[in-house]
Amino acid sequence: MVKPLAFKGEKTKTKKRKAAPTIEDGPEERTIRESANDAHEDDSWVTADSSSDISGPVVIVLPSRKPTCITCDSAGKVFTSELENMLEKDPTTAEPHDVRQVWMASRVAGSDNICFKGHHQRYLSSDNIGSFSARNEAISLEETFVCIPSTDTPGTFNIQTLRETYMSVSDDGKDIRGDAETISFNTTVRIRMQARFKPKLKAKKELKAKEKISRKELEDAVGRRLDNDEVRELKKARVEGDYHEKLLDVRVKGKHDKYS
Predict the structure, then answer these.
(1) What is d(CA 60, CA 159) in angstroms, rounded to the nearest whole number?
(2) Which of 36, 45, 96, 99 is the most buried (most CB within 10 A)?
(3) Smallest Cα–Cα separation from 106: which of 95, 94, 117?
(4) pTM
């Protein structure tokens, strides 16, 4: 279930739930679970680098003189609105300040196409003359888009309609159309998304969770004091995926040493 969006300046009360450890839980399982909880709570905004990243709440940042994004109202009218939450007016750091600027991106089953659902539960659509709206509750071809990575500027995309035309914006950022026939600066958009939905960041957090374990936790898991080589061996095993096998080897070694 997607969490309610929080914007800068708002005071929100969050309650983190941590699963109670059971008898079977060792320190390594608790560490991984706690890091996974932290990743689930990560509501920071990052830039999508590839089309496979695009998922969950997104902001479609347009290449206008003043940074703007695609917005829709409750009646389904699509327009542009100026972005306010940025660091030093840098659109690569943009975050939404209005829920109307946020779209829920999801992939159409069995394809590389992406659809964007507005805050009012209607989908972004481009008709046969290139006009955008967000009034349909169901997905048809007009509600599906292909996000093509830009070859000139990493971290940007050209959003293509089913008619193989492109989303574009006027220089002043006021008019948005879906009938551009060629890729240009005005068709090159940046997609900002929540970090917790980005696959690469998820994998990185999981890797850090595996690496994050103290000497004491390892010694508690083994049941005795460890030397430096054993600590390094177990930490390496956590990253490589054979931790439990190595843990058993170290435990057995300790028993042999005890009775030798």
Answers:
(1) 10
(2) 96
(3) 117
(4) 0.65
